[in-house]
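User: I'm writing a tutorial on reading structure tokens. Could you give me a worked example: one chain, its sequence, then its tokens, then a sentence or two explaining what the tokens reveal?
Assistant: Sure. Here is the example chain.
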Amino acid sequence: MLTNRDYTASKTLSFNFSPNPASLTEISKTTGLETGVSGYNAATGILNLSLSPGEGRLFALPAGFSPDLNLAAEATVTASSSLESRFVLPDAVCRN
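And here are its predicted structure tokens:
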């Protein structure tokens, strides 16, 4: 799942998969079915997409795509900013 943690501004990003999956699908927010993904280049493993403020999108990797492989194990991760929001629900909301 890729998310835009900025709740005020849209973001355009390029996400690089390594190794490159042969295909990539997105899980539809309305039907829950897998749909094609525009913006994914299987030859380069790069997914280009735009996310609205606070938006998240769920993607599915193809069957057999080394699910035990940690794609971030050797990655250098950087960010220009981060925004986190934490809140506590009242007890009445948390009770069953």
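What the tokens reveal: The mean pLDDT is 80. The first helix runs from residue 91 to 94.
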